[in-house]
Amino acid sequence: xxxxxxxxxxxxxFLSEVIERMVDAICVVDLDGRFIFVSAAARRxxxxxxxxxxxxxxxxxxxxxxxxxxxxxxxxxxxxQSQAHFENRYVRKDxxxxxxxxxxxxxxxxxxxxxxxxxxxxxxxxxxxxxxxxAVSEAAxxxxxxxxxxxxxxxxxxxxxxxxxxxxxxYDRRSGLLSFPYYVDAxxxxxxxxxxxxxxxxSEVIRTGKRLLLRSDAxxxxxxxxxxxxxxxxxxxxxxxxxxQGGPIGVLAVQSYTGDVxxxxxxxxxxxxxxxxxxxxxERKQMEERLRHIAxxxxxxDLPNRSLLHGHLQSSLVHARREGRHLSVLYLDLDTFKQVNxxxxxxxxxxxxxxxxxxxxxxxxxxxMVGRIGGDEFLILLDGDTSATGAVDTAELxxxxxxxxFQLEGHRVRVSSSIGVARYPEHGADYKQLIRCxxxxxxxxxxxxxxxxxxxxxxxxxxxxxxx
Length: 468
Ligand SMILES: Nc1nc2c(ncn2[C@@H]2O[C@H](COP(=O)(O)OP(=O)(O)OP(=O)(O)O)[C@@H](O)[C@H]2O)c(=O)[nH]1
Fold this sequence. Notes:
This protein is α+β, with helices and mostly antiparallel strands. It has helices spanning 4-7, 11-21, 42-46, 50-53, 67-78, 121-142, 146-158, 201-208, 265-296, 306-323, 337-344, 346-362, 388-403, 431-447, 463-467, and strands at 25-30, 35-38, 83-91, 97-107, 112-119, 166-172, 177-184, 194-195, 212-215, 236-244, 247-256, 327-334, 369-374, 377-382, 406-408, 411-413, 417-424, 452-455.
């Protein structure tokens, strides 16, 4: 061991001076868990004067979430297992968190723990930001859809800053509307979509393309354009723009209603940092959803196309079979539609198909599906009302609604329709059989003059055939 008296005449003074100048803090804790000595570096690391800490329980300074494992680590040290890299978080005097890495050892004869605390907050911050970026980019690939992506982004952001009140606002440039597809809040329900000029804090972030941090204690006036907002009755409001490739596509926002959560510029930096990755993940998911929509929908009417209808019918049949339920299929073909094209042009024919699609959708429930098979042929799956009369009633309703004249660019156009009805399990056991039966019934309706509903005539009597 070095002889201190050779370095300085008074070894004690020399040691005190060295300890005073150390960047890391030396902390000594007795068997009862009280600080009995804390060196000067505590001032910078914990924000307390050393004398404010001595005599007090060490555990009271530890972040509540980390207390249990800190006590377990302390027990290990007392049992003789020294710790070289134990990490936990302390609450500084100003309320902020500091990440500490401890090296600690038990001093048997003194019955006390001797530890050295190193402030690793910056390193932890860099690590968690890196991890957050990685997690967001992973979520961009693996999230099932946009809402799953939002929930996962929320979880990731909550690991970086307090985010119990968090929302995602999306801005649709074409409609000019700001919507709130993900909204978690202690007091408010998700707001309805609103125009960008409705004077909200979120729209201010979109308009300016800049983050906005409002702290209740700063008493800063609201931006002049802001009139009302669901955030105005929160104490602190922090929103950052989601910058897409062609400008802001939305906002990520956190807000607090309680004084123990305050947002700082540092939080704004963190949220902004993550928002870049979140924005690109959202754009990626939006693109995937657009492509999926295009693949499954008819471009003219935006109705489900043949592939989606067949897939939906197959899975509905699986459920119906399992639950012993009925379901119905309507096959609809417009009568003499060709004449509309021939007399008024293809453009008016297109408008008629679009308007007819809207009318049909209004006749069915949310569990049902109206799709376009092609040309002037539509398929309607009735999964909601499973009664035999319900299917015919719905078919009659559709027929009569399509009979009403259409006003299309100044032309008054009248059409009628022929509809075939087939029911599971009476008329078919699988989707192909059901569609064929409904098509046959539609053909019968057409052959007998059109503008009518016909139910499939070929009921399956053989139970073995039904169950096939
Ligand atoms: N405007 C328009 N017409 C289409 C479209 N797709 C198919 N058609 C036309 O729709 C018509 C469908 O033919 P049909 O069902 O045989 O004609 P129809 O006059 O309804 O005859 P019936 O069904 O026997 O009453 C054809 O003239 C197609 O050219 C489309 O997307 N837009």
